[in-house]
């Protein structure tokens, strides 16, 4: 089930995307990576989405997944599974009241979601977190059609592992960001560009656009970045002065494009120092999800 819950971090994480499978294991204590590996998937083998089969060629994906996990997992069979952002609808909801009992709260959250989804909420896996203690009660809800979720979880089972936790890619990557200050995070992956803004340890803005991939450049992001920044400042009365990006062709190009409209510092979400030698030849942009899930 997609989750945003604060639970003990696993030692092994695996991200399955349209382009690759990335696996990693954290060192004891969860402060650094101990090992990481990536394996490319042929184009068209996996097509993330909400309303269609994502993995029609399962027989070709399972061996790649098994070999990737075997390279880093050691004896562990329990992993954190990270799925593409295109498979999950993430929504921020406000409630005047919300029952304390999870089962009762789940029914209320599902009722609110009912008219906002392109699929039946009764046929979906729903996970949600309450944020803070303010009024209204703010909730982050992550929703994935059960049929789509089962595709990914069954891949892991066929490979011989157990996906104890399932997290959408951006929510996993947020684990790398300092959420105590107003910060925008931008994650570009095949088919999807996702924007999030965090502050005071809360997720306050989340937008996913269907335009990710190699065509996304720093310059092409400027209008969407500014739209999100203006909305956030108008709603919360505070500005963002830091943007963390991953998967963007040129961080410098985005910095230059933003210089004309805002005093904002743009940085890589995954720094070379954070990735460390254990990352090997795995691209830093490919590590954001697994590192966010594993490394404090």
Brief digest:
By secondary structure, this protein is of the alpha/beta class.
What does the model show?
This protein is of the alpha/beta class and 296 residues long. The chain folds into 2 domains: 1-177 and 270-296, Nucleotidyltransferase, domain 5 (2-Layer Sandwich); 178-268, 2-Layer Sandwich (Nucleotidyltransferase, domain 5), CATH 3.30.420. The protein has 8 helices and 13 strands. The chain has a 5-stranded mixed beta sheet with strand order 3-2-1-4-8, sandwiched between helices. α5 (218-236) crosses α6 (251-259).
How are the secondary structure elements laid out?
Blueprint: E1 12-16, E2 20-26, E3 33-40, H1 58-72, E4 78-83, E5 89-95, H2 102-113, E6 124-131, E7 137-145, H3 146-158, E8 162-168, H4 169-173, E9 183-189, E10 192-199, E11 202-209, H5 218-236, E12 242-246, H6 251-259, E13 265-268, H7 272-275, H8 284-294
Parallel strand pairs: 1-4, 4-8, 9-12, 12-13
Antiparallel strand pairs: 1-2, 2-3, 5-7, 6-7, 9-10, 10-11
């Amino acid at each position: 089930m997609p989750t945003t819950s604060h639970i003990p971090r696993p030692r092994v994480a695996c991200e399955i995307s349209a382009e690759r499978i990335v696996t990693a294991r954290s060192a004891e204590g969860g402060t650094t990576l101990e090992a990481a590996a990536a394996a490319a998937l042929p184009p068209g083998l996996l097509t993330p989405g909400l309303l269609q089969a994502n993995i029609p060629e399962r027989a070709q994906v399972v061996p790649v997944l098994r070999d990737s996990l075997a390279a880093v997992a050691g004896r562990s069979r329990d992993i954190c599974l990270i799925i593409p952002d295109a498979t999950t609808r993430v929504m921020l909801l406000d409630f005047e009241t919300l029952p304390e009992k999870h089962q009762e709260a789940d029914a209320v959250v599902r009722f609110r979601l009912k008219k906002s989804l392109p699929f039946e909420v009764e046929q979906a896996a729903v996970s949600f977190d309450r944020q803070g203690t303010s009024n209204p009660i703010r909730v982050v809800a992550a929703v994935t059609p059960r049929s789509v979720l089962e595709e990914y979880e069954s891949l892991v089972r066929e490979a011989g592992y157990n996906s104890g936790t399932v997290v959408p890619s951006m929510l996993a990557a947020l684990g790398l960001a300092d959420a105590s200050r107003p910060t925008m995070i931008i994650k570009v992956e095949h088919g999807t560009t996702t924007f999030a803004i965090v502050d005071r340890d809360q997720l306050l803005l989340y937008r996913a656009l269907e335009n990710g991939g190699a065509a996304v450049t720093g310059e092409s992001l400027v209008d969407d970045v500014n739209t999100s920044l203006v909305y956030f400042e108008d709603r919360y009365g505070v500005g963002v002065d830091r943007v963390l990006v991953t998967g963007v062709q040129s961080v410098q190009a985005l910095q230059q494009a933003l210089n004309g409209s805002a005093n904002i510092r743009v940085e890589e979400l995954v720094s070379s120092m954070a990735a460390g030698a254990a990352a090997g030849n795995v691209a830093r942009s490919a590590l954001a999800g697994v590192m966010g899930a594993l490394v404090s």
